[in-house]
Request: fold
Amino acid sequence: MRHPFFCLVACAGVTILPGCASYRPAPVDPVATRAQWQARRLDDPALAARLGPWLPARDHGQWPPKRYGRAELVLAALALNPDVAEARARLVEASAAVETAGALPNPTLGLALERYTQAQADSAPWLWGLSTDFLLDGGLRRRLRLQLADQGVRGARLDYAGKLWSVRSAVRDALEQQLVARRQATLAARTVATATALEQAARQRVALGEDQPQVALQAAQTLARARSDQAAAGQRAASAQAQLARAVGVPAAALQGLALRWDDFDRPAEPPAARLDTLADRALLTRSDLERALVDYASRETELHQQVHAQYPQLSLGPGYTYDHGLRKLTFNASLSLPVFNQNQGPIAEARARREAAAAHVRTVQADIAAAIDAARSRLAAAWPALAAARAGSHAAGRARDQAEHAFALGAIDRSALLEARLAALAAEQSTLAALDAAWQAEAALEDALRAPLDPAEATLGPAVGGRP
Reply:
């Protein structure tokens, strides 16, 4: 009685056990991860080996570069940013689901035992049987599962591409804010020095009875505003450096003393309209978030197909063996699910509604893309004349300052008038810097709408920087 049973169990163990995976714990230690984060540096030799082949031509394949521009910082962020690493892990997770979807269901094995409590003549006391159950899960059901898993991988790739773009945008924005804040701080320091001299001169004139007390009060207010602007510029610079460090994926200390570059920062060029039209047409058809919405729609389509197919009966087969008190019997069972009380109408209706919602989402995303591109192009078009007007005003204020310098040297005006002319010129420079900042931000908004970099050096880094999978 026991011989065939144990033989079957032994054969199953020999077949199954070698293919089993073993569990190995991999705990995450916050202390270790904190130490690893604090040890990150941009001059790491391992980072140089990874980024060397992708560096722009101006770096001659050398890392670290003498000065870090948008292209260099974006490359470092793609290698170091933890958000990119997490998106990459999600992609691996989605890829593993394909193996799960393609796996065939394991059969089940059942054992039945029965023993007579009292011996009967000419019969064995035991009855035992082995039964199996094989779910017939091939054909269309398995193909639909694999198709849905493949769509999940495609969606994860598009999510990864979207994360690459968001990290790139964060690096660009933080770098631009850092450069603007540094210039603002320099102008603010010069303004504070000039306002301090003006306030001292006003107090002296009031003390000598040459001016009214409100003149000194106005000079003190000017100095207070200058100091407040200086403090705000310092805060903006510190915040921009922290944002840049987070976007790149290093601690803020790793950016101390880092030489930054932005070629033609003072001379932003308006992109050719023909190129913008081409990029806009491509974005309206292939932007990563639109493709993500299309993948979601395809997934809902596959789910609806699954639910429609699930209304049909599913067949299971179960061959078995029974030892019945001395008699050996071969058995064969078959079971079929019967759609008697429902034909899966509810899940089918839900899947169809999800498909319609996904289709509406595709249209919404495409409309949002078109609106964002139009708004960004209008914003950028308005930024150019504003920048030109600010520069014209700064040029006029500079000429007025130069005339005041000449008049002061000739003794035609006093020191207070000279200092006021200098303050006006500094204020005009701050206005020009604000207009330049607005122009670069408008270009950044257009790049985000197009999901394409407009900087030539950055555009040579490959499709990953443009948010393409």
The mean pLDDT is 88.
